[in-house]
Amino acid sequence: MKPARARLMTRAAPPVSGPCPREVGIPPDYARRGPIIRGMNIIGVRHEDKNRWERRVPLTPAAVASLVGQEELDVRVQSSDRRVFDDAAYAEAGATVVAGLDGCDVVLAVKEIPAELLRPDTAYVFFSHTIKGQAHSMPLLQRVLDVGATLIDYELIVDADGRRLVHFGRFAGLAGMVDALWAFGQRWHELGVQTPFLRLRQAFEYESLVQALAAVADVGTTIAAEGLPPEVGPLVVGVTGYGNVAGGVGEVLDRLPRVDVPAGELTAELIRATPTTSVFVTVFTEQDTVARRDGAAFTAAEFAADPGAFRSIFAPAAAQLSILVNSVLWQPQAPRLLSVAELAGLQQGAGVGAGGSRLALIADLSCDIEGGIEATVRATTSDDPVFVYDPQTGAATPGFGGDGVAILAVDNLPCEFPRDASEAFSDALAGFVAPLAAADFGADFDQLDLPAELRAAVVAHRGRLTPRFAHLAGRLPQHR
Predict the structure, then answer these.
(1) 275: how many CB neighbours lie within 10 A of its CB?
(2) N or C: which end of the chain has fewer CB within 10 A?
């Protein structure tokens, strides 16, 4: 064994029972305690417990085996009877399986860690949902500051071009599109029309991504040979966005007899003239969905800087779609992609299959509640994934029956491919674990020795917001 690297680390303070002084944000005696010498940070892997569907892991046993065997790290994995990889696999990989993670210096998780479990002198790495000042997550951020912990958010680990390096987005797109095709078949079945999509299952019911994609390809072969019923075909799928989520959507659609149609060429006349053996796919960019209110030409830079100066022009295109897949996150100052009023206009007087809009299903993979898709009035779960929204009445009826458009709005889609998603995520994260183990988290932020990608992802350090996120102070409970 190579000797552990010794370095200076501030001694941990005991857990605090109440808030710390606001001007400090950490336990009062934290800075006065003497230094101790210690070696590499102990890495902890937390079990996930947000809901019964959450079986993902930040590090797989294969990654742990490499970190223990090659990097000689001390990795401790919290026991779980739910995660997709069992305790025995981690023990065989060289990890220590433990009941709790109190002795760990760096804790890796996927979803938010309950605030009451955060401890001093610990660096936490997870999707915190704090970086935009989300109100529901501000108590969690306040707790990070109160106990003097460090928070690193995966969402902020990006390359020089701003592309996220550690993410589940592709799997949200993969699972979301498989579920969308399944739900489309179920919706039309409810309306009395049978389609090949009835052969599909939800993503989580397949053993692997490979099996799910093979099932979609089998349906694609049937469509290419026999076509879809005239009430349904040709299938027209509109996809908004072009990031990791949309990339996953595209991988599924590639298994169908896909014909790409630019947004400007998607017309009712073209659709009527096309045999039902084809599946049209149109990818919509911002320029296809919004226009300046003053009539000036669109520029991406102006839309990013002042989205309130734009209005949505998407509704006419939406009327031509069979399925709308939305993978664009919405900001409140931006126009909605499709409002309830616009959806009502599309379906005025008739529903799908009765002379109204072609739009049977909206798969809102962004799942912004009453956001870009205003009809997304609530998030759904894998065991209750769809509701039918009637824009005339505002009713949201669980299941596939009723007037209106079916809405798929599952908010944790990557959970439906837990093994595949975890393996890809772990591959992306593993290279950052050794630097986390070597970092001196007792140092001040300006002395924190981390790779640039990790350093930029630090939201708070030793109980203080980092300069990049100082603006969040006004949103914290103690500042109200």
Answers:
(1) 10
(2) N
